[in-house]
Amino acid sequence: MSVATNLLPANTSGIETDASGWAAGANTSVARSTSRFYAGAASLQLTATAAGSVTATTSARVAVTAGSEYTAYAYFANIVATAGRTATVTVTWYAAVTGGSAISAVTSTAATLATATSWNTPPPILIATAPPTAAYASLTITVAGLTAGAQVVADQMAIGLPNAVAGNLLPYNISGVEVDVSGWSVGANVTIDRTSSASWEGWYSLRLTSVAAGNVEARTGETAIVAGTEYVAVAMVNAPAATDLRLDLLWYDAAHALLSSVTYTRPVPAAAWKRCTLTGVAPPGAAFVRLALRPQATAAGQAWLCDQMVMRPAPLLAGTLLSYNAQSVEVDTSPWSVESGCTITHSSTRVWEGGYSMEIVATGTADAVIQGTERVPVTERQVYAVTPGVYRAEAPENTLFDTLFTWYDVDGEVIKSVYYRWGLHAVGGWFAPNSSAIAPAGATSLSVGMRWVEPQAGDVFYADNIAVTPGGLGVLADPIEGRYGTTVSLQGLTTGGYTYWGLWRMAADGTMTAIRGASGDLSKQTITGDVAIAEDYEAPLGVDVRYYLKLWTSFAYRSFTSDPIVIPEPPPTMVVLKDPGLPARQTTAMVAKGGMPAWTRSARQGVNAVRGRARPIVISDVRTSRAGVMTLITETAQELANMWWLLETGNTLLIQWPSGWGEPDAYVQVGDVTEAHVSDYAGYTDRTWSVPLTEVDRPIGGITGSAVRTWQDVSDDHVDWLSVMQSANSWLDVYTGVQGG
Fold first, then answer.
1. Contact indicator for 576, 699 with CB cutoff of 8 Å
2. Dihedrals phi, psi of 735, to nearest 5 degrees
3. What pLDDT band is residue 396 in, cutting at 50, 70 and 90?
4. What is the pLDDT of residue 2?
5. What is the pLDDT of residue 741?
6. Cβ count near 499 (within 10 Å)
7. Is 477 helix (H, G, I), strand (E, B) or coil?
8. Is the separation of the CB atoms in 313 and 167 below 8 Å?
9. Which of 64, 385, 503, 573 could form a disulfide with 436 if both were Cys (CB 3.0 to 4.6 A apart)?
C-alpha cells in the first residue's frame, strides 16, 4: 500500500529537519525525535499533557481534486511498551487553502498498537473521495489511551492518490482491500476476508477460503460499462497449490438482469503470484458488469490470495483495429499462429505493455513466421499501418524483419500478400518498425503477420503492443482520364519524424526519374504536412510504372513503392505531344504513312590528311543526338488549333509513341514547322505537318498549372474576381495557373 505521489512535503512526512510541518492538537506537544524512526533518521514525537488522546495536524493544507479518490496512512510506535493504545488518521476537506470551515472529514478504522516498541504494520489506512467542493485537505494523526507525560512517535505520514492501475473502474479498496472487503460478496462455497500475510501491492490481499471441494466464487458489485466496448479484467493470484483459476465477466442490462458472460480459465502455480487476465466486449444492451474470481478447490480450507484486481476499458492503441489480446497477448497466444520455423509461448519475460508478451523461439529450419488469426475490416484503396513492438537480444549482426500484409475479398479468398522489410540493429532492445500498405481493389479484410529472416536455431524474439491502424505512409497513383498523366497521392509524410521527402517514377527495369514539381524535380522537399499530391505527365504510356516515395533525415530513411499502374495510350496510329512544363499544352496527332522520322545521328569529326601518310588522322567527338522529320496529320479545326497552341511557345516537347512501336519517348526541340493543306478546298480542315525534331535532354524547371485545372481550382486559388485579374495577364494564364500581373 502506498501513494503514487505523497502530497505532503518530505519534511512533513519524515521529520528529517524539524517538526514545523505539524501543529499540535489539544493535550499534545510535538517535537522531532531521533530515538525512533521508521525510515530516515527521525520521527514525530507526540507527548500527552494529561491522560487521554494526542493529535497533530499538518500545518499546511495540500491541494486536491474534487471527485478524486485519495488514501492516507501513518506509521506509529510506542516509546515504552504499553497496552491499550489505538491510532487513527483523519483527512479533513476544505474549499480554501487557509481559513474557512471544514466541508467534511473521514477517519480510518482504529489500529491497535502492539504492546511493544515495534512499528505498527499494517498502519491505519483510509481511502476516501474528495467531496464536490473540496480543493484542499489536511491530515490529522491521533493516538488514544495515553497517560499524562506518555509519548508515542509517528513517521512516514502520507496523503495522495492511491498507487492504482490507471483506468481501473474498481475503487481502490475493492481492487486492493486495503480498508475492508465490503466491495466483495460471496458467490458460492467460500468465505472472504483480507490478510496482511502476503500481498502484491499495499499491505493487504483478498483471501478466498473454500468451504468444501469444488468451485469457489467471489464477486464484485456491479460496475457501469458501455455496450460494445472491450474490457479487460486482471487479478494477481497466489494459490495454495497448482490449480486452475477461472475469471468471469458477467454482463447485466439496465434492469440488472444477467445477459451473458465471458470466461477464461488459467492454470496458476503454487505459492507464487500469477497475473491472470480476461478480455471481453460488452454485448448489446449491457449496462453493468461484475468480475468473478472462481478458483477450483480440491478440499475445504484451501485459501487463495487475490490482489490488485482491475476492470477497465481495454487500453487499446489509438485507432487500432485489433482486439486487446491480439494487440498485447495478455490472455494467451490464440490470436496468433505459427506458419514456419518457430514456436510461440505466452511469456512474462519481456514486456512492452501489460504483463505478458509473445515469445518466439526460432527452430533454425526456416524463416520464423507467425500470422494473425484475426481479420480486421478494411476499405479498398486505403492505407493501413502495422506497428508491432518487437524485442531482440543483442547480436553481432542485424536481423531482417518483415511485416506481412494479407488482403482478403468478401468471400475470404486471398487477393494479395505483401511485406515491408526492416533491419533490426545489432543493439538489443525493443523496436517499433512502422510499416504500411494499401488495400487493393476488392479487399474487405486484412490479417497481419511477422517474419524473422533466416534466424539461428534458439534465437529468441518477443512481440507485444501490436497496432493495426488506418493511415500511414502510402502512395496511390491513378491515371488522369484523357490527359495521359498520373495523379500521385501521398500520405503519412509526417510518419516517423523525417525531414525531407522525394518522389520518383520507377520503370520496369528499376530506372528511377524524379517527378517534376512546381519549382523543379521533387527530389528533396521539406516535409510541412502529412499529405501531398503530385501530377506526372512524363510517364510512359501503355506500360507498368510505379512511384517510389522516400522520407529521410541525415541518418535514417523510409520508403514506399506504389502498386504498378498503366496509363492508357491513344489509338495505335497516334502520338502524344506534350509541353513538360505546361501540361495543359498537350495534344495528339496521327502519324502519316511513312511519316516516322528517319533518325540521323551526325558524326562530329575532323579528317586531317597527313603528308607522307596514306591514312588520315581523324579527330572525333561524341555523335549528336537524333534528328529527323516527322509527318503528322490533323483532321479537325480544333486539332489544328491545338497543334499550334502547343508549338507556338517554342518550348522543349515530349513525344510519346505507342508502346508497341519500339520507340523510346523523346524530349525534342522542334524546328521550322510546315502546315500543309491536304485539299485545295478551303473548307477542308485536314492538314499535314512536317515537324523537324532534334532530340534534347529532359528540360529542367518546374511544372506550371495542371492539365485538369477547373473553375473550382480558380475559385480555390483566389478570394474574388479582382484577385484573379491581378494575378493573370491573359485567359491563358487563368487556364494554366500561371501567375502574372
1. no
2. -65, -45
3. low
4. 76
5. 45
6. 12
7. strand
8. yes
9. 385
Dihedral, CA atoms, 272, 273, 278, 279, nearest 10 degrees?
-140
Q: Confirm if 489 and 515 have CB atoms less than 8 A apart.
A: no
Phi, psi of 655 (to 5 degrees): -105, 130
Q: Are strands 52-58 and 125-129 parallel, antiparallel or unpaired?
A: unpaired
| pLDDT, tens digit, 9 for 90 and up, residues 620-643 | 999 999 999 999 999 999 999 999
Which whole-number Å values give the CA distances from 625 to 628, 692, 696, in the listed order?
A: 10, 13, 7
Q: Give a three-class secondary structure readout of 415-442.
A: EEEEEEEEEECCCCEEECCCEEEECCCC
The residue type of 629 is: V
DSSP string, 228-270: T-EEEEEEEEEBSSSEEEEEEEEEE-TT--EEEEEEEEEEE-B
* Phi, psi of 441, deg, nearest 5: -55, 135
Work out the mean pLDDT of the chain and round it to a whole number.
93
C-alpha gyration radius of the chain:
40
- Which distant-in-sequence residues (6+ apart) come within 8 Å of 480 by Cβ? 486, 487, 535, 707, 708
pLDDT of residue 737 exceeding 70, the answer is no
Q: Walk across the sheet containing 43-48 and list its strands.
A: 28-33, 43-48, 151-160, 69-78, 125-129
Please name every residue paired with 124 in a beta bridge, in sequence order, or none if there are none: none
Q: Of 691, 698, 539, which Cα lies nearest the Cα of 625?
A: 698
Percent of the chain past pLDDT 90, that is, above it, reads: 87
What sign has the CA pseudo-torsion 282, 285, 290, 295? Answer: negative
pLDDT tens per residue, range 468-520:
999 999 999 999 988 899 999 999 999 889 999 999 999 988 899 999 998 99
Task: Find, among 387, 391, 386, the residue nearest to 425 by Cα.
Answer: 391
Positive/negative CA dihedral, 345, 349, 355, 359: negative
Which of 595, 600, 578 has the alpha carbon at shortest distance from 689? 595
Q: Single out the residue of 496, 415, 495, 417 nearest to residue 449, CA to CA.
A: 417
What's the pLDDT at 710? 65
C-alpha cell at 92: 479533513
The owner of cell 474528495 is 130
* H-helix or E-strand spanning residue 735: helix 731-736
Q: Does position 459 have pLDDT exceeding 50, yes or no?
A: yes
Question: In 3D, which of 110, 98, 88 has the Cα closest to residue 138?
Answer: 98
State the residue for C-alpha cell 471527485.
67
Beta carbons of 280 and 331 less than 8 angstroms apart: no
Q: What is the pLDDT of residue 740?
A: 53
Is the pLDDT at 342 greater than 90, yes or no?
yes
Q: What is the pTM of this model?
A: 0.83
Buried/exposed 171-180: b ≥16 CB within 10 Å, e otherwise: bbbbbbbbbe
Run of H or E including 382: none
Is residue 577 within 8 Å of 651, Cβ to Cβ?
no
Q: Are 125 and 108 in contact (CB under 8 A)?
A: yes
CB 408 within 8 A of CB 444: yes
Q: Which three cell numbers stand for residue 75?
A: 506509521
- CA 271, 272, 276: angle at the middle one, nearest 5? 120
Phi, psi dihedrals of residue 651, rounded to the nearest 5°: -75, 160
Any bridge partners for residue 244, and if so which?
A: 267
pLDDT score, position 182? 95
Give 423's pLDDT tier (boundaries 50, 70, 90).
Answer: confident
Closest CA to 239 of 193, 165, 294, 167: 294
In contact, 164 and 71? CB cutoff 8 Å: no
DSSP 60: S
Question: Distance between CA 481 and CA 475 in Å, rounded?
Answer: 19
Looking at per-residue pLDDT, the higher value among 723 and 475 belongs to 475
Per the structure block, which three cell numbers stand in for 73? 496512512
Q: Which three cell numbers stand for residue 15?
A: 521529520
Interatomic CA distance for residues 602 and 519, integer angstroms: 35
Residue of 102, 85, 101 lying closest to 93 (CA atoms): 102
Q: Is the peptide bond before 269 cis (omega within 30 degrees of 0)?
A: no
